[in-house]
Amino acid sequence: MTAKLISGNEIARQIREELAVETARLKEKFDVVPGLVTILVGQNPASMSYVTAKQKTSKELGFYSLQDDQPETITEAVLLALIDRYDRDPRIHGILVQLPLPKHINETKVLCAIDPKKDVDGFHPVNVGKMTIGEADYLPCTPAGIQQLLIRSGVKTDGAEVVVVGRSNIVGKPIANILLQKQKGANATVTICHTGTRDMTFHTRRADILIVAAGKPKAITADMVKEGAVVIDVGVNRIGMTPEGKAKLCGDVDFETVKEKASLITPVPGGVGPMTITMLMMNTVKAAKLAAGVV
Ligand code: GUN
Q1: pLDDT exceeds 90 at position 18
Q2: 121 is catalytic
Q3: Could you list the residue range(s) of the whole structural domain that residue 62 is in?
């Protein structure tokens, strides 16, 4: 079997069209303009490119958008004070602090300083808790994007065996949580594998839906995948430069061999990546609506 591609680019484009219509309606009907600030500390090249893409998309959708670049040397206290200012700024509905942060800054403390109502990343413990009990206002963006890819590609999750490789707070843990909820687009039987898993292949070969966020290039090979599985590759590994000077990317899945076994597979780039940004926009629109008390 040769897999069909799940195009994150195409599905993200559809959702952005819906969001552009909704943003225009909010402006027209309620004079509400979604506001997003992205805070970047330092000059990590991957973080810089993510933040640039988030800014570009939010501007295209007609948001009020701010890019706040801070030096690597910023103190934790100054960063916390900055967040407090945005917490109180009524033009801003969503605050995103790009991760990772420099080692001298306590990431948890920073994430906890963001008003949960403006936490469009869904990383504040209050929002993590709400997600866990199935009452989320904001789902974290990458896992929410994965769920949308599955729903909009017609993949049945109800009763499916889902295996997640990776237990990060940003992807592995939340996607497992989302897909196990007794809700539409979820209700799966979920297993999480990680570096402590004794026999990874035993688990991955049972997966109807295999979600890979291992942070390791080509960690999943064809022998680890069941014939006909749906494979979602969350990995973004920089493996050099293209002749045009762009970063050359590969996923955590050995795409060339696994695509011969899977029924559906996401490419890297153009799979999960564009969905992450799009879900951030969706959360920001929701934050603006909740703040204004409009539906
Ligand atoms: N770094 C990698 N992914 C993310 C994300 O979804 N949000 C933030 N804030 N930082 C990240």
Answers
A1: yes
A2: yes
A3: 30-115
Per-residue pLDDT tens over the stretch 119-151: 999 999 999 999 999 999 999 999 999 999 999
Catalytic (active site) residue 54: yes
Residues 219-262: tens digit of each pLDDT = 999 999 999 999 999 999 999 988 888 889 999 999 999 999 99
Contact 97/113 with Cβ under 8 angstroms? no
CATH number of the structural domain spanning residue 55: 3.40.50.10860
pLDDT tens-digit map of 164-198: 999 999 999 999 999 999 999 999 999 999 999 99
Q: Let me know if 43 is a catalytic residue.
A: no
Q: Which of 55, 98, 147, 181 is catalytic?
A: 98
- Residue 8 in domain: no
Please state whether 122 falls in left (phi above 0), alpha (psi between -120 and 50) or beta.
left
Phi and psi for 288 in degrees, rounded to 5? -65, -40
279 is a domain residue:
no
Its sign, for the CA torsion 14, 17, 23, 26, is negative
Among 170, 283, 284, residue to substitute to test ligand 1 (most atoms within 8 Å of Cβ): 170
Q: What is the arithmetic mean of pLDDT over 254-276?
A: 98
Residue 161's φ and ψ, nearest 5 degrees, are: -85, 110
Query: N- to C-terminal Cα distance for the chain?
Result: 45
pTM: 0.97
Domain contains 41: yes
Amino acid symbol at 138? Y
Cβ of residue 99 lying under 6 Å from some atom of ligand 1: yes
- Which amino acid residue places its CA nearest to atom 8 of ligand 1? 98
Closest atom, ligand 1, to C-alpha of 142 = 6
